[in-house]
Amino acid sequence: DVQLQASGGGLVQAGGSLRLSCAASGFSLDDYTIAWFRQYPGKEREGVSCMSGGNGDTRYAASVKGRFTISSDMFSSDNGNTVYLQMNSLEPEDTAVHYCAAALGSWLGAYSDPLDRPYRYWGQGTLVTVSS
Length: 132
Hints:
Shape: globular
Number of strands: 11
Number of helices: 0
Order of helices and strands: EEEEEEEEEEE
Largest sheet: 7 strands, mixed
Strand content: over 45%
């Protein structure tokens, strides 16, 4: 069974940090693009960041660039299957349910915006709340 398990959300004060994790099981991330999305109440999901499971290439939404970092232990000696989103300098506007997703095809250059492509597999959401 292909599964994505997201975790790490919580309550943090503005300026603080959180690290989200997305553990993949049932498939290897090598041939996939893995992304983080967030959703505000009553709004569509929006892309936050994505990573190529093939070469580690990354993309970020303008609203989080310089504050958030996507990474994975698949490129470390752990040879794992987990993707992380390190979120620093959090702002109240970052308060949202965050989801991880995966799409077959690891080359980010195949799409003009790899965050705006179909993603087949989705994890459950994890809530990030940033207090002012």
